[in-house]
């Protein structure tokens, strides 16, 4: 009986665990350090998190997509300081600064911005100007200068943008200055339900998780109590059967005694009569 109860409880636990697994082949995959407001693509309902915070994996690297530029690699995320450190897979951060438009996203540059002008020149400039190699070619040379500097005659202004840093060959790599921060407070979700703060959305998610655990615990307790009473009922049935068997033996013995009293056993010797002729 105890083994039956243990087997039933163990099977129930397995069923509950299986029922809570997401119905997709990626279940069990570990995404260390990624939490709200970021999400992994196709791992959560899209209405629960702002779509701009969706991350995805490709070739063992984590990416985030910006429509005005493309895909950037996520180097690290600091949730305390709200700092998203990115890497340009094309290894040309000045190109990211030139084309990345964050005005319609919850992101902004982490560092203080300053206006710089990109200029495109048909010939090399003096050594006081530093060429951007990843944007230049054999017949064109791109430089980033402060807006207070008038471009030479051989150069055309391409675009003036507010960026964290100008180009420097000593500090230039595929991640220098490419750090963003975010602000979701008061943002409306894409389902149109209403504007909620980041903390409220996060607590709402925690509530659903806690609610599922409470329901599972209540169901488990109900099952244990049910099995306990079922066990007690079975014991009562067994005791009743045994009691009936005992009563049956007593009645049988009583009937047998009464029968023997009505039909006493005779001594064979006393029944023999001796006749003398």
Provide a compact summary of the structure.
The chain has 277 residues and is of the alpha+beta class. It has 3 helices and 10 strands; from the N terminus they run H-E-E-E-E-E-H-E-E-E-E-E-H.
Helix run count: 3
- Mean pLDDT, all residues: 74
Give the overall form.
rod-shaped
* Rg calculated over all Cα atoms: 42 Å
**Biggest sheet strand line-up:** 1-2-3-4-5-10-6
Membrane topology: Single-pass membrane protein
Enzyme class: transferase
Transmembrane segments: 214-234
Subcellular location: Membrane
Describe this entry's structure for a reader.
- Its main location: membrane.
- It catalyses: S-ubiquitinyl-[E2 ubiquitin-conjugating enzyme]-L-cysteine + [acceptor protein]-L-lysine = [E2 ubiquitin-conjugating enzyme]-L-cysteine + N(6)-ubiquitinyl-[acceptor protein]-L-lysine.
- Keywords: Membrane, Metal-binding, Signal, Transferase, Transmembrane, Transmembrane helix, Ubl conjugation pathway, Zinc, Zinc-finger.
- InterPro entries: ATL20-22-like (IPR046948), WAK_GUB (IPR025287).
- With 277 residues, this protein is of the alpha+beta class.
- The protein has 2 domains: 1-29 and 197-263, no CATH class; 30-191, no CATH class.
- It has 3 helices and 10 strands; from the N terminus they run αβββββαβββββα.
- The chain is rod-shaped, with a radius of gyration of 42 Å.
- The two termini are 79 Å apart.
- Mean pLDDT is 74; it is low at 16-30 and 187-209.
């Amino acid at each position: 009986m105890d083994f039956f109860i243990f087997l039933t409880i163990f099977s129930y636990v397995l069923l509950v665990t299986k029922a809570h697994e997401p119905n997709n082949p990626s279940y069990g995959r570990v995404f260390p350090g990624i939490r709200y407001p970021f999400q992994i693509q196709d791992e959560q309902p899209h209405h629960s998190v702002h779509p701009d915070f969706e991350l995805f994996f490709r070739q063992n690297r984590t990416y985030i997509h910006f429509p005005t530029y493309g895909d950037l690699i996520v180097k690290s995320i600091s949730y305390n300081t709200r700092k998203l450190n990115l890497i340009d897979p094309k290894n040309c951060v000045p190109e990211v600064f030139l084309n990345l438009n964050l005005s319609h996203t919850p992101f902004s540059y982490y560092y203080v911005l300053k206006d710089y002008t990109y200029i495109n020149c048909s010939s090399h400039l003096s050594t006081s100007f530093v060429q951007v190699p990843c944007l230049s070619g054999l017949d064109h040379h791109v430089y980033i200068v402060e807006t207070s500097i008038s471009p030479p005659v051989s150069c055309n202004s391409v675009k003036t943008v507010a960026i964290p840093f100008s180009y420097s060959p000593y500090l230039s790599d595929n991640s220098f200055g490419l750090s963003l921060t975010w602000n979701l407070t008061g943002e409306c979700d894409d389902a149109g339900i209403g504007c909620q703060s980041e903390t409220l959305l996060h607590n709402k998610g925690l509530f659903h998780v806690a609610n599922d655990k409470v329901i599972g615990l209540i169901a488990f307790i109900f099952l244990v109590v049910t099995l306990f009473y079922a066990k007690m009922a079975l014991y009562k049935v067994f005791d009743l059967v045994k009691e009936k068997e005992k009563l049956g033996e007593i009645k049988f013995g009583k009937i047998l005694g009464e029968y023997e009293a009505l039909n006493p056993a005779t001594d064979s010797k006393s029944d023999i009569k001796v006749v003398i002729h």
